[in-house]
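Example for tutorial group B:
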C-alpha cells in the first residue's frame, strides 16, 4: 500500500537517514502542521489516484494549510457549505445521507449487503455450571452428620484416630 510499517524505521535507521522520505508521509498525518511545513512537500502527481482518494487527499491538504488560523477555518467552512448547497440544488448528485456511510462506500468501492441474517448463538455451558458454592456453615452441618473413621486403638467410629484417641491419654 505504500505505508511505512514499524520495521521500516529500523531499515531507515540502518541506512542512517535523519528524515523520512516524503513519499512515505501520508497527508492525513500532517493536519496539525503549519503552512510553511506543508510547502516543502513534493507532489505525487505521477501516482494514479481514484476520484474519491484524490478528493480526500485535497481536503486533507487544505486542512493542513488552514492550520490554527480561525479566519482560514471560517473561510474553509463557508466554502464547503457553499459547495454543499450548490451540489444539493443541481439535483444530479446522490441524495444526502445521514452519517458518512456514502463516503465510505465511495472510498472503499464496496456496497453493504442488502439483507443481514442474524442467527441464534450456539448454546455453551459456562465454566463451573451446575456447581453450587456451599457456605462454611453448610459444610459443617454435613460433616457433623457423617460417621467418623474407625479408631485403630479403641475400635470406635469417631472423629479421632490412634494418635489422638482419648483412651490413649488414659493409658499414658
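The residue assignment follows.
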Amino acid at each position: 500500500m505504500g505505508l511505512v510499517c514499524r520495521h521500516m524505521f529500523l531499515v531507515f535507521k540502518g541506512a542512517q537517514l535523519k528524515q523520512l522520505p516524503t513519499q512515505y508521509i501520508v497527508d492525513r498525518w500532517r493536519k496539525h502542521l503549519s503552512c510553511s511545513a506543508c510547502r516543502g512537500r513534493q507532489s505525487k502527481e505521477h501516482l494514479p489516484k481514484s476520484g474519491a482518494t484524490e478528493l480526500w487527499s485535497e481536503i486533507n491538504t487544505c486542512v493542513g494549510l488552514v492550520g490554527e488560523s480561525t479566519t482560514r477555518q471560517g473561510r474553509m467552512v463557508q466554502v464547503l457549505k457553499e459547495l454543499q448547497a450548490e451540489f444539493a440544488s443541481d439535483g444530479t448528485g446522490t441524495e444526502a445521507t445521514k452519517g458518512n456511510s456514502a463516503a465510505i462506500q465511495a472510498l472503499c468501492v464496496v456496497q453493504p449487503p442488502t439483507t443481514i441474517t442474524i442467527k441464534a448463538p450456539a448454546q455453551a455451558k459456562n465454566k463451573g455450571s451446575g456447581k453450587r458454592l456451599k457456605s462454611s456453615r453448610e459444610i459443617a452441618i454435613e460433616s457433623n452428620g457423617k460417621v467418623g473413621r474407625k479408631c485403630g486403638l479403641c475400635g470406635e467410629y469417631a472423629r479421632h484416630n490412634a494418635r489422638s484417641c482419648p483412651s490413649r491419654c488414659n493409658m499414658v
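Helices lie at 6-14, 35-39, 51-66, 70-90, 101-108, 136-145, 166-171. Compare this with the pattern of hydrophobic and polar residues in the output above.
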